[in-house]
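WARN retry 2 of 3 for item q-0093 after timeout on previous attempt; input resubmitted unchanged.
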Amino acid sequence: MIPDYQTLMLPVLQALEDGKDHKKQDLVTQLGVQFQLTSDDLTQLLPSGTQKVFESRVGWAITYMKKAGLIESPQKAVFRATKRGLTTLASGPSVINNKMLMQYPEFVQFIKNSPKPDGKVASQGDPVGEQSVLELTPEEVLRQAHQRVMHALASDLLDRVKKCSPAFFERLVVKLLVALGYGGTESDAAQAVGKSGDGGIDGIIKEDVLGLDVIYLQAKRYDNATVGRPAIQQFVGALSGRHANKGVFITTSSFSPDAQNYASAITQKVILIDGEQLARLMIRTGVGVTTTETLELKRVDSDYFEEE
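OK item q-0093 returned
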């Protein structure tokens, strides 16, 4: 029987106990042997037919422990235990699951931001934002699962963006703006945007294909530094010098409340896009993501069965 993702958490972390880098596929192979899974178990596919069930569950175990700071990923599909992860193993836990991970602030924040079917977020007393399946309709269960997948995807996407090079970040922002309908073509937008010298980009882009109006853009690739009011004031001051009345400030981190209040109070139209919004926009426009499965919900067409 294929173990669920929470059952896999402790074995996954134990497989990383040597502190070295391990490829995900090697972990899948090692754990398959450890759990004595058959070839049928290892090749069983999700309903979409695009991914193996066991591999998917190992991936979710890794994702949740990454959010708790027990595992880190130095590069794509490569993982290792963090100092916290090794300390956790040294304490001799009998199990690692979502409830146990709630002791870590990062995981609590991740879960608190996870949406529930009613649009609310999970609470600490409801550690994975779950209700009993018996309390939900099948449609609600499906919606809840989809929202959780999207939340984890956005978080992982933002982690990837923060690790990319300045040149890659520039191309990413250009592609996103064009996907949103700004900047004309990618070639036009790329020429209008230049490096700012601090790991970000700076430039003027067209608001429409004809260039009837322009938008001043700044994008800063920060890890955890919060963008404060002074940075936004400086940005607004540059608008007039650039002959622009509209501006977009993108950061991979976040904006302070003071910065947000200032941006909403000024006469110029300034849009602030933080890391979470950036990731959601990337998902919405298909930048940096790919669709692995599409589910359709259908109902009986009552009109079809009406007889004259």
